[in-house]
Description:
The chain is α+β, with helices and mostly antiparallel strands.
Amino acid sequence: xxxxxxxxxxxxxxxxxxxxxxTAFTIQSQDTVKYTLSEVIQIAQDQSPDxxxxxxxxxxxxxxxxxxxxxxxxxxxxxxxxxxxxxxxxEKYSEIDSGTNFVPLSNVNYSVALSLNQKIGFSGGEVxxxxxxxxxxxxxxxxxTQYLTNAINIxxxxxxxxxxxxxxxxxxxxxxxxxxxxxxxxxNEEVAxxxxxxFFLLLLAxxxxxxxxxxxxxxxxxYRIAIGRYNLGKIAENDLLQLELxxxxxxASVENAELNYQNKLFVFKSYLRLKDDTQIKLIPPVITPxxxxxxxxxxxxxxxxxxxxxEFRRRLLEAEDNLYRAKREGRFDASVFASFGLTQSAGxxxxxxxxxxxxxxxxxxxxxPILDWGVARGRIKMAESGxxxxxxxxxxxxxxxxQNVFLNVMEFNMQKKQLRIAAKSDTVAQKRFDVTQKRxxxxxxxxxxxxxxxxxxxxxxxxxxxxxxxxxxxxxxQLRKLxxxxxxxxxxxxxxxDDLID
Length: 502
């Protein structure tokens, strides 16, 4: 390639780059918004799609639990029929004709009843208190009106050996709600982990763009110096061609870095739901807290605080409930119904409440399976096997859970050393590149490959440092999620659940 032509193209490229950088700087100075890691995490926990979904799921669990508790409170119901008109024929025996005839029927029936019901959770029964009033108008020939009152009626319905769904439900439903609360806090920490990932992926892309422009500027300077040295016969043509190749590669790297940055920026804004077109600049964490986490303390906290601890206990109760159901259903069954009331009938409402008669009812029902061909026994054996399976699965899952916490603690405790090594490597590689570049520019180093290697090592060391920083914060928030404990401030991680319902 002709050197004059190449120099002309380089001048055009440099001019274009300067115009681009000037424009970018102007835009940045006007509309750039800077974000720190903590700010990004807070925004993600407030408005990211995962955070909003977690809030809606918690609200569902909250109202489900409220409905469950309301089931054990007294219920008051009004039942009315206004009116019930019946015009037809009925079969009726006549003493005069000594036979049965069909006679016309025309009446209007009105009724209203008020009932108060209360479930008995520990026994599975129900007590009730009712009061009712009925009016019957017969409209054939002469209209006559009758009132039937049930001033008060008290009763109980009590299964004796039947499956009681409330027996385990009273234990399982509160555990489900507690599990939902812990799941929400864990999801919040999971959102923080995702925010950390997107923050550092964009930060790495941002640094990659800075490195690409810096390398392009450096190789542009070195190539122009090399042309002068080549014309003076101080370097070989091979070195000049190598620098030319490096410059072209750096130019291509600028475009690739810009494209990668725009892609990561879109993902970042999409997750945080940032809809404006302002420029974004991320501020790397300056202070990284270093502390060791005791392994056994983390395992104990995870057992006590995580949703999995509650889930294990809940699944055992559900398996025991299935066995309890299998033993009760399809076997000997009995139930008792008893009621006592005061009733009266009269032609007017006041008279219908005078001198009421007793109304009593007592029923004992029995159901005894005589031959079921082993169906009930088979269900019991299946439920027993299901309970054994759940116990075995949970035992193994607890071991795996403890191991996972242990590995996460070990990984986090390693990050202090790994981060220090990465920072030192970045410093050493930067100094080495600066020294090699200066020596090359003054002619004390003529090996272009040595300069290339120093530049590549410098870039890799810088990206490696921020990659180690990313791993540190990922590990930190993963440990918070597993234990629901803030080891830095030594406090439990919690949230205001009341604010989620408003």
